[in-house]
Structures are given as C-alpha cells and as structure tokens.
Amino acid sequence: MSTPVKPKRLPNHVYISEGSVDHYTQSTLKGHYSLLPAEIFWRDRQQSLYDAGYVLRPRYWPNWRPSWLGTNLRPTFCEDSIVLMDHQVMDARRRDNNELVAIKKFRKDTQEFNISQYLNSLRGHPENRSVPVLRVFDDPYDPKLALMVMPYLRPCNDPPFLSVGEAIDFVNQTLEGLAFMHRHNIAHRDIAVENIMMDAKSMYPEGHHPVRLHYTPDAIYEVTPLPRTGRTIHYYYIDFGLACHFPAGASHFVVGDVGRDTEVPELSSTVPYDAFKVDIYALGNLYAKEFEEKYNNMQFLVPLIVRMKQRQPSARPTADELLAQWRNIRDSLNKSSFKWRLAPRSEAAIERVINGTVAVAWEGINHLKKYVT
After folding, report:
1. Which domain of life is it from (predicted)?
2. SS3 of residue 102 by DSSP
3. 283 exposed, middle or buried (CB, 10 Å; 0-12, 13-18, 19+)?
4. Last residue of a domain, one of 84, 106, 130
5. Global pTM?
6. In Å, what is the CA distance from 185 to each residue of 130, 188, 251, 327?
7. Taking residues 102-128, what's their average pLDDT?
8. Domain stops at, among 59, 84, 109
9. Angstrom distance (rounded) from CA 33 to CA 35
C-alpha cells in the first residue's frame, strides 16, 4: 500500500495569519480585487477565445471566484489576483500545446492593423523583425474590431544585457529590421526601447508569469533566467500605431510632434520632416542610452551613433548605409571580445576587476559543462 503524498507547503510569505484572513475576505467581498472595467472586455470574450483555441487565466473565466477565499493564502501570491497591465493586450495559452501567446485588439480601419498584416505577409525574409502575426479573427461582439494573436514577448532589456556579444546581436537584428522596413517604404516613427521586445523562451525553459515577469507561472517563486549567450533570442519591433506605409516613390515627409523619443530634434506638428530620418535618430539614441552611455566597453558603437544622431536630418545616412557600416565595424572586432562582460561606467575599478574575474570563471565553468554533460 503506497503512502499518500503530502501536498507541498508553499513558502511562508505566501501565508497570512488567522487574524488577517477576515480582513482580506472582507476586502475581497467589497470589490478590492474585482475585475477592472477594461478587464471585463476580455472576460466577456473568454468563451469565444476558448472556442478559437486559446485559454485565458482563471481570473477571466465566467463566474470566477477568487482562489484565496476560505484559505489563509495571501491574495498577492495567488495568480488570479494579478490584474492586466496593458488593457489592449491579453495573454493566453494555446489549447493544443500550452504555448503562451499575446492577443491584441485592433480597430480594423487603422494603419497599425494594415501595416502589421502587410509586414507579416513578408515573414519569410530573414531580416523582417516585425512582430509575427499568428492569427487574426473578428471580434465576436464588435464588427469594427479584430483580435490579433502574436507570440508572447517580453521587454528587450529585461533581464539586462550581460555580454558584449549580446549587445552586438541586438544591434544586428534591430538595424536589419529597420533597413527591411524602410526598403518596404514603412517608417515606424516610434522607435524606443519600449517598442522593441524579445522572444525569450529559451531563457526561461520553465516559463514565467506573463504579467509578473520575474516570477514563475504560478506567481509564487522568483525565477532566474538563463543568459542570452548561447541561445537564440529574437528581437521584434512592435506597436505600429504611429507608423506610415508610403506609396512607392512618394514623399516620406510627415508632421506630428509624436513618439516616445522626445529628443528627436526635428519633431514638429507644423513643419514637415522625413519620417525615415526620425527612425534613424531614435534608434541611434536607443543604442547610446542602452549601451554606449552605460558601459565602458561599447565604444565601438560611437562612430555609428554619431552618424545616426546628426542634428541635421539630411546628414543622417539611410538605414541600408548604416547597416553596411555596422557590419564593417562588427567584422573588425576581435571575436573573443564578444564574450566580454559588459562593464558598467558606474562601476568602481576594483569592483570591475572582481566582477570581470567572476564572469571569466563562470564562462570557464559553462564551457566545461559542455564536455561533461
């Protein structure tokens, strides 16, 4: 006769005292953890999405009852207490393989919707770095809306970059992607670190929570990612809400004091400017802020950044010219430097030596593991 397996006890921080149970129960019954108005949109579509092959988190199921009621569990560590952060996008899992995806609602009459689908029609090109579209279907209630299914992505700089080679890969992919868009007469017009995301599944083999990114899928335990190095990471441009698709041969000049990067010098709501040159400046500014200004050993980016951030738009090269320059820079680098740890400018000299030594040691251990395992 087998011995019954006792349920695993959760960490102590997940539990509340008996005296707190009533407090949280009353708070819950008063609506403190109820669905937000924007979440109700997705709750109402739960069954339609399920029928289409996508499962929402229990919080969005009909007749949801908070899982912590009647227990001594702290609501914060119950997965169904976690609210949606971006109300335009819902996470879901595919019924057939449990893969995490993102579902975004779009108005069908928007440029964003049309550009996203156009770029996806060019998916076979290796330099296409626009977010893939897996499926599009009509909203079940609003004929003006469509629901677009995409891979689940996380911020491109979370977790932080660790090595020079990781930064080089990011520059490779994002410059290729920009050149590809411009060749197809598309200007993004809102390039910023928030609008470049990554498919990081290989860094999180056990997954992570889609909203509470630094926790396991059950939102209880902190999760430690694997490094980018040695894994395939895909970076994608997202959010084409300000993008323009120009007819062949048409002017690229637009107006609009818009976009996340407010440092682009020519932005104006009245004076026309070249949308392609804005993309160039914004991406160069991103490289400067994320790499060259943060780390001591990214100076090789300076010649590229200087050309991209020329104050006079006409002095900035095209994306294809920059891609050619970048490839020359990259190919001139010693390949052994790709493994070097990114050294923060804020780091003291002794700290830099210690951290560099530790990084080399870990690299040796990881290299040895390849032969032992």
Report:
1. Eukaryota
2. strand
3. buried
4. 84
5. 0.90
6. 14, 10, 10, 22
7. 97
8. 84
9. 7
